[in-house]
Amino acid sequence: MKGFQQMKVLLVFVLVSLLPLSFAKLRVGFYKASCPQAESIVQQAVQARFGVDKSVTAALGCDASILLDSTGNNQAEKASGPNLTVRGFELIDQIKSQLEVACSQTVSCADIITLATRDAIALAGGPQYNVPTGRRDGLVSQASEVNLPGPTFTVAQARQTFGACGLTLNDMVVLLGGHSVGVAHCSFFQDRLSNFQGTGTPDPTMDQNLVTTLTGTCGSNPNVDPTAFLDQNTSFVLDNQYYNQILSKKGLLQIDQELALDKSSSKMVSNLAANNALFGQSFAKAMIKMGNIQVLEGNAGEIRKNCRVVN
């Protein structure tokens, strides 16, 4: 799913843009005949990485267009400001190399990301679910097209961005639960610790003990930008503790905390905080729905040989 954009099971946010929707006719088991070992290759690679780096869950969840490197005449999405701290590219490269040996130019980078994210979520204690595959890789990646909601967005602003992608308020609240794993750089919430919205005081909606703790974590050196866990309780487990924390005024990002305060979302937050099974089921459905946004199929796009460059 790493700075703000590496929170990403969600990334949640990496997948959100304002382009028109196009839903593909994907299906579970798309590679059953053409590359029967595809899903097991992805799963084994993710499991091996998770064994040595549990933060990999939050690193995955991006759109395949962010995998493309910049060229001499084009600045790709990964070069845009919000995406500069995204990581995990080398894992996708590794999986792609293995798949090219097993079944050359058959499995798309877009499907690799989707499958790897699904597997990482399960390893982190999240729901196990099937994802439809059959995506094709896009040919365009431009930094100028990156349009992501920021950590200081209000619920209404974030809702507008998610809504432009066909995602509901409920989808948004559930997907932001991906902040149950990952970290945020201090620069994304520093103002909440001492000068919230220019008041010269901390954000009154943040727990005072958390303010003190984070102030110590972040320090005062403007040239250093430490990180803090978005979920201070079960930091590497994808569960519903994120919602319990924002109900206790312990959300790091402004958008996280406002979910618990805004009348339009507060009831959903309470329901998810009280029922981890509900969160898991809802998160799986929302991830599948998000994974169907702006998908290429059939003869559209291509199957890249190397996820970093077009063929």
UniProtKB/TrEMBL annotation:
Residues at which substrate binds: P149
Residue sites binding Ca(2+) 1 per the record: G61, D63, S65, E77
Main location per the UniProt record: secreted
Enzyme class: oxidoreductase
EC number: 1.11.1.7
Protein's UniProt name: Peroxidase
Name of a matching Pfam family: peroxidase
Domain Plant heme peroxidase family profile: 25-311
Subcellular localization, as worded in the UniProt entry: Secreted
Entry keyword Nucleus: no
InterPro entries: Haem_peroxidase, Haem_peroxidase_sf, Peroxidase_pln, Peroxidases_heam-ligand_BS, Secretory_peroxidase
Protein's job: Removal of H(2)O(2), oxidation of toxic reductants, biosynthesis and degradation of lignin, suberization, auxin catabolism, response to environmental stresses such as wounding, pathogen attack and oxidative stress. These functions might be dependent on each isozyme/isoform in each plant tissue.
PANTHER family reported in the protein's UniProt record: PEROXIDASE, PTHR31517
Keyword line: Calcium, Disulfide bond, Heme, Hydrogen peroxide, Iron, Metal-binding, Oxidoreductase, Peroxidase, Secreted, Signal
Stated family: Belongs to the peroxidase family. Ascorbate peroxidase subfamily.
Organism: Carnegiea gigantea
Domain of life of the source: Eukaryota
Catalytic activity: 2 a phenolic donor + H2O2 = 2 a phenolic radical donor + 2 H2O
Cofactor(s) in the UniProt record: heme b; Ca(2+)
Cofactor binding notes: Binds 1 heme b (iron(II)-protoporphyrin IX) group per subunit. Binds 2 calcium ions per subunit.
Disulfide bond sites: C35-C103, C109-C307, C186-C218
Binding site for heme b: H179
